[in-house]
Amino acid sequence: MRPNRLFTLFLPLALLMVSCTNNTKSDTSNAESTPLAEVKVVQYEALQAAYSKQDNVLYVVNFWATWCAPCVKELPDFMAVNDTFKKKENYHMILVSLDDVNNLETGVKPMIKDLNLAVEHYLLDDVTRMNTWIPAIHPSWQGTIPATLFIRNGKALHFEGGPLNKTALTGLIQSFLQ
Questions:
Q1: Domains located in the chain, CATH noted
Q2: What's the rounded Cα separation, in Å, for the pair 62 and 118?
Q3: Which pLDDT band holds residue 37 (cuts at 50, 70, 90)?
């Protein structure tokens, strides 16, 4: 009698575990538009090389973190604006997470998937040198996030040290693409 009782208790638990495992498989139907698996963990020099190219492209580089409420709040607006401009050859958006690298799998990647952040992603793993790279990104940056750099051919066009809404972001991009 006792073995049947254990079986009755553990069978539903085992089925629940199997069903949860199946639900966590990645959705590949949207894989073309959402590069969710790729987050490049880099030091500052590699990040700088990604947006300082001499290619006449306007790079919109947003610095954010999963623990930053204003960052998370503005990201859907960034994706909506990106959808408007992403087909232009002279435009490219990059998101840079300032999360701890230990949070990559448990925080950053799930948030990228949940918010459908379909742009190029970096995690800047260079905390020990932040007093060097923060002013190198822009002299007026004090390190607060969210922060957004607009840059073309290695020349900073504008730096926004705070959140941007859809209207403001669209206006800035339009002004730099003309």
A1: 39-177 (3.40.30.10)
A2: 13
A3: low
